[in-house]
Amino acid sequence: GQTATKPISHADICWIDDFESPVQNQVHGYRNCFQKSPSFASFYRTREIGGTVSDRGYSLCLTGEKREQGWCGFWLHLFDHKTGRDWLDASSFDYLSIWIKGKTGNESVAIKVADQYWFGKDDSSLVGRSAKALSGGISTQWKEIRIPVAKMRHLDSNRLASIIFEFEELRKQTIYIDDIPFRTEGGWNVELPQNV
Known about the structure:
Layout: E1 13-17, E2 31-36, E3 40-46, E4 48-49, E5 52-53, E6 59-65, E7 71-77, E8 95-102, E9 110-115, H1 116-120, E10 125-129, H2 130-133, E11 143-148, E12 160-167, E13 172-178, E14 180-183
Antiparallel strand pairs: 1-14, 2-7, 3-6, 4-5, 6-13, 7-12, 8-11, 8-13, 8-14, 9-10, 9-12
């Protein structure tokens, strides 16, 4: 059966994942890569980027190689699938915020979100592409992608299920992702727990 949506405890920010926890994120969701051969993806949590220990704490390192056939990327649940479907209500927030950087620069990733409907179809809706969301695209410096919740037109923001990062370009790429919250305009004044 269906369960009620989760109440959001903080008025300005709802932390989804900062990758400090090895298994579950702040909304008790799990994470993993997805792939269909011959395309492939892998991920790990790391404190070291480019041989230097980051002052950000742990980040996600995601590598994908998209080929002519198949697909690859990474999913992040917004609920605990082991205890039931308790969809995330993000309707009171203005933006989905994602911090991202590339291993070499010029990487590209599609960002998708699934609500209860899309999740039931084992699919998601495109909400942004890094090349369009970031001035100059992904670089070797941390940049913030802000995706307005209001622009998630094909989604029920009261019943969100997952965030997906999918590699679409035919090449091998490595990106780093960190600090993913939903935020209000007022939430931009809320201190992040890690240095950015």
